[in-house]
Design a protein that fits this description.
This protein has 14 helices and 12 strands. It is an alpha/beta fold. A 6-stranded parallel beta sheet has the order 3-2-1-4-5-6, with helices on both faces.
Length: about 350
């Protein structure tokens, strides 16, 4: 029993096609045993983030303590996760020379097994069937202290951080989690703004996160409209960057035409944030083609026959969100943020070495 011999096990879940029964079974089993669970890139809704063994997600800008936990683990069981570029931090999370002694990798695609990471054991299997089978096993020991510390580390990492501007996105996202029901669906596309969402929002119910693992800009708003058409009685919120929204924001016409009352929070920092971040980091002050001349998104919304409201401070956001949710029509919240606050815990000045 390799699991029973482990001192520092870590369970990594990812991929798609999970049944609710399987996700619940593996969550209950791992929590009972005290095995920390990390979720792969943009798979935060596979298990309730309030479970006592939830350790966080291996995505962009992850918790450094979770990264260290993965490196220190003497057994990693990965189900459904490809362990590709994003969750392994550009393939730096593990060392190919030693990972074969501690990685059990289960994935539905045989081409993924052993392609990047050598394994102790591997299996081609449906994610749900593998999870259900694993949840029937009874290791000879448990790890309650390990799980407890992993969850403490997670909770500390999602505490709001300080910012330089008038809008603190960590507090905005925290407020979303406080007022939205557990089954609210949150959609986003690609961009630095999404780092705030993924870090500070807790998911409690499977099927509440819609986000591209391919890095596709423009995904968030059409995905939100699709979700609202399937689940008209559930809250659906799209969090979109300004550049992101301008790629598919014309679908507001579809929302109005079909009464798809999605609330979109447009995080407007006037720049393509991810590209700007790399420019400032690698070529300080040599910025090109990343500044945006944005429209008045409130006027844009009203032009389509939707509700629009402008928000310029953290304190004003709760009232803006309440008004948007109560509007009874598609709604746009134009949230103006500072480009200086380029990512959680990072500023442009810091990236320039200032």
């Amino acid at each position: 029993d390799r699991l029973g011999q482990a001192e520092r096990p870590l369970l990594i879940l990812g991929g798609s096609g999970w049944s609710q029964a399987a996700a619940t079974a593996i969550a209950v089993w791992s929590e009972k045993l005290g095995i920390p669970v990390a979720l792969s890139f943009r798979r935060k809704d596979l298990i309730d983030n309030d479970r006592s063994n939830y350790a966080g997600d291996l995505g962009l800008g992850p918790n450094p303590k979770l990264i260290q936990r993965a490196r220190d683990a003497d057994l990693i069981v990965a189900i459904g996760a490809r362990l590709g570029e994003n969750p392994t931090q550009g393939y730096t999370l593990f060392d190919r020379a030693e990972i074969a002694d501690r990685l059990i990798h289960i994935h539905p695609g045989p081409e993924e097994l052993g392609r990047v990471w050598p394994t102790l054991m591997s299996a081609t299997a449906d994610n749900s069937l593998a999870a259900l089978a694993l949840a029937q096993t009874q290791p000879i020991r448990s790890w309650p202290d390990l799980a407890a510390q992993a969850h403490v580390d997670f909770e500390a990492f999602i505490e709001p951080v300080s910012v330089t501007g008038d809008v603190n996105m960590s507090q905005v996202i925290r407020h979303l989690g406080e007022v939205l029901p557990a089954d609210a669906i949150i959609a986003n596309g690609a961009g630095n703004y999404s780092a705030w969402l993924h870090r500070f929002h807790k998911h409690h119910t499977k099927g509440t996160q819609l986000a591209p693992t391919s890095g596709a800009m423009g995904y968030g708003y059409p995905a939100a409209l699709a979700a609202k058409s399937v689940y008209p009685d559930r809250d659906v919120i799209c969090v979109a960057g300004d550049g992101e929204y301008l790629m598919t924001g014309q679908e507001l016409a579809t929302a109005v035409q079909y009464g798809l009352n999605v609330v979109v929070v447009i995080v407007d920092n006037g720049t393509y944030g991810t590209i700007r971040m790399h420019q400032e980091r690698d070529y300080p002050h040599r910025v090109i083609a990343t500044d945006l001349k944005n429209p008045d998104f409130v006027a844009y919304a009203r032009a389509f026959g939707a509700f629009g409201i402008r928000c310029e401070t953290t304190e004003a956001f709760p009232a803006a969100l309440a008004a948007a949710r109560a509007a009874g029509e598609p709604a746009v919240i134009h949230l103006l943020t500072s480009p200086e606050d380029i990512a959680p815990g990072r500023t442009l000045t810091q990236l320039r070495g200032g």
